[in-house]
Give the backbone structure.
Amino acid sequence: MEIAPHIRAAARRALSLPGDALAAECDEEFFVAGGPGGQHRNKTASGVRLVHRPTEVTVTATERRSQAQNRSVALVRLRERLQALSHVPKRRVATKPTRGAKERRLEAKRHTSERKSGRRDLE
């Protein structure tokens, strides 16, 4: 999947921001997380979903019973996702096998062929 250059640039710019400024660029949504943790977790909106508007990256955190802890975990996850998004993979350059490598490969094939044909004569 090819990532658009403006998305990659927005991710790089967002990574340089401090936590408060990065959180300001996000839409925060709180929801009931559910799962283990008892009545406190099942009745309060402690789950956090962050949507980074410039890159449209979405992360959620629901592990903790505390909304504040989930928010900090979500910000860490957002930074990780933005880091992955801003990474530019190294360009691969096609190379040809050397003449010596070709000769070694063909010699190995020839050797295998001779061994197999030698077995055929025995039968």
Remarks:
- The radius of gyration is 28 Å.
- The chain has a mean pLDDT of 89.
